[in-house]
Amino acid sequence: MGLIPAKHAVLKSFLSSDPPPNKVLETRPDAYSQRGIHLREDDGLVLYLPPQNVPKGVKPQYEIVLHRPTTETLHQMYSLYRATTQEEAELKFIIFKDKIPVFIEVAKEMCNVHGLQKLCDILTEHPSWTLAHLAAHFGLHDSFNDPRVNCYLNSSEPETGMSPLQVAISTQNLKTVQMLVAASCSLEHLDNEANSVFHYAASTTKEIIGVRPPTTEKCRPSYLRSDF
């Protein structure tokens, strides 16, 4: 008997029309004409207050919305995250505000539902990643031509200590690794567990292991040297 209510609850959840709070949705300005603004960034990210007249039984929601630049469109917006508490909404807004607007300006191909979903998901998993870590993860090597990304070329992510080059090696994106090495990205960087870029490369491919300036050959661990 106890299983029946549980099954009904699962079915109700499955059939619910409400999308998950972290699902990126395309939306329009008229949906927010009656919503107050709690936080706003000049580059288009807004945290909206819950609607004033919430139906009984419905939890009020704070909503993080990305406005596309008016030079591109007046009507296209994206709801990035919805939260039932102000604290949760503010924490997520802080993670997004310095990265998402700039990143989609640099990498315009990411400014769509699919790209923004991937961007929001990876920032939820790695909230302290810099723009360079993001560009390395997604293999957007051209983004490193922008000084707003390139300035983080040798940055260290606090949680793991990984550098953008180590992220690129982990994703096994050969072209991005080649670009970062050619840009004189540090090959001496160690993560929080004292793993070097060579340790990361050891578990990848022959091509990535071979992307090293000739002057580094002497300092490479013997197990990574090769006569390919």
TrEMBL record:
<feature type="repeat" description="ANK">
    <location>
        <begin position="160"/>
        <end position="192"/>
    </location>
</feature>
<keyword id="KW-0040">ANK repeat</keyword>
<dbReference type="GO" id="GO:0052816">
    <property type="term" value="F:long-chain fatty acyl-CoA hydrolase activity"/>
</dbReference>
<dbReference type="GO" id="GO:2000304">
    <property type="term" value="P:positive regulation of ceramide biosynthetic process"/>
</dbReference>
<dbReference type="InterPro" id="IPR002110">
    <property type="entry name" value="Ankyrin_rpt"/>
</dbReference>
<dbReference type="GO" id="GO:0005739">
    <property type="term" value="C:mitochondrion"/>
</dbReference>
<keyword id="KW-0378">Hydrolase</keyword>
<protein>
    <submittedName>
        <fullName>Uncharacterized protein</fullName>
    </submittedName>
</protein>
<dbReference type="GO" id="GO:0047499">
    <property type="term" value="F:calcium-independent phospholipase A2 activity"/>
</dbReference>
<dbReference type="InterPro" id="IPR047148">
    <property type="entry name" value="PLPL9"/>
</dbReference>
<dbReference type="InterPro" id="IPR036770">
    <property type="entry name" value="Ankyrin_rpt-contain_sf"/>
</dbReference>
